[in-house]
Specification:
Four copies of one chain form a homotetramer. With 163 residues, chain A is α+β, with helices and mostly antiparallel strands. Chain A is built from three helices and five strands. Helix content of chain A is 21%, strand content 28%. Chains in contact: A-B, A-C, A-D, B-C, B-D, C-D.
Chain lengths: 163, 163, 163, 163
């Protein structure tokens, strides 16, 4: 299904930016995720993306529980999905999630939903999160906790192999 | 919260296109829609938009049950939300939904989440749906059922006042 | 559908107990609540009951936000549903919810799902909640806030007419 | 938390009944499953039980997709949960699910939610399902497909080791 004009614009990083941090989550379609039309209801993908983002978070120490401990909130301010093919009852799929380097204080994630075992891309998406401090004030500079992570990321110490 | 570069691109219609079909749904934030951070979880807005789209559907005879009866499926192929302010426990809000005229066979809806009673815009979004026939083949021309509706819409007989 | 042996055991109150506090919530089945079998997925009823409990809470000042303000948590420790007939796409129904008088420190609610407009009972259920203080300690005596409410309830000042 | 009077009544089978069919599903609490109180919202357990039932279904050929293929529906007519301790953000747990032998045409499942790695029981539950044929008529005798399965079950050929 070609959808030229809708094409999801992905994040662009400068030429010197380190590689995105990526991780995979494996999921199977659940009974209650399938709608009357026999396919996964489109609104369920927010949960799949959350699974993907959690996989990145756990792999690299960027989980919501880490944020919580640090007094940081990271509300999603932009959410976008482009659906290609429908996930069906019983389908197994990978959520391949990447966090992109950004100088601005925001967490930019992209998501690919790939059916298993054939690897067909079913949907693509992205989210943008801003950071708030414990008084709900927008953070305009990266807080200490992120600076340490970004230092390692920059030095290539956070890039894990997929999976 | 200014978000210039992310700005949600809304649907554009030709100068002769009839006015969008609009309707309102009134909702109150539910306990289970609020997350650990004390705000409505971003993934819940797909449900709010579904409420909005249903309101348009019921008001103008475009409900999923009408589609079902006609053997038409209308899968969402693009879904986008831009979040401005967070909905809080107990907030009441309107989902203001508009279906835009389109020559191409697609249902283009936009959504505004407006807090009550002050009318503050909390989030904006859009969805794009394609139409499939009962063999899951993409419809490239409007089916009879829609032609009749569009005829009325064109003549201004489907434009209800808001609410 | 007779289901004698499973019959849901409802709450019994002493002969002097004041009437239950009851309220109604009106709902329409949503598209995403319907499963592959064409009926509302059984797990959705927890949301319907939450709507019902909220209606009682708002009507009588027993909302989770009231609890929150008072530093009281009210976790559900028992949840039960007996399903008679399936709710279908587009069905409209009332959630008729009653809070029963209890000497022991617990909130005992019963729920009736009644299809509109014919009033047919589709499902019945109940929940039991205990009360915790802000240190997550079980409350064995009714806290001040509830004592005031119960005083009014006892005097018949909290019994609203249905609806 | 002792809850004597609420104690969930489990299924009883005759002395000659074959052992229940049991399977495990491993889950981690998701961000969006946690409510404002910081614990998993009680209504989420229906999804956990569905995961557990699916694990049994896949292990023994009793999946909803098998039913679908056979033209059999299996609506849940009774659902019950007894909550002991709350699941917290990030908790990992097993859903230990057992399907009990029954002469009457019904699927009786029990569920244990056990926190990992300490094995603490967090919640217990059960569901009862009836069987309907493709005309939504209640099945009073086991259909062919189940008879074959039950034959194997009776002979002890369906009893897998846990996990």
């Amino acid at each position: 299904m070609r959808k030229r004009q809708d094409a999801l614009k992905m994040f662009s990083c400068g030429p010197d930016a380190p590689q995105p941090l990526s991780a995979m989550a494996l999921r199977t379609v659940r009974f209650q995720e399938v709608d009357l039309m026999g396919v996964v209801w489109h609104g369920r993908y927010a949960e799949y993306f959350e699974d993907g983002r959690s996989a990145v978070g756990r792999a690299f120490g960027l989980d919501y529980r880490d944020f919580f401990r640090e007094g940081i909130k990271a509300p999603v301010v932009n959410f976008e999905v482009e659906y290609g093919r429908s996930l069906l009852p019983g389908d197994t799929f990978l959520v391949e999630t990447s966090l992109y380097w950004s100088e601005a204080v925001r967490l930019n994630h992209s998501y690919l939903i790939k059916r298993e075992p054939d690897g067909l891309i079913m949907a693509r998406g992205k989210t943008v999160q801003l950071l708030l401090d414990c008084q709900d004030q927008l953070l305009l500079v990266w807080p200490e906790y992120f600076l340490r992570l970004r230092e390692k990321w920059r030095r290539g110490e956070l890039v894990l192999s997929h999976g």
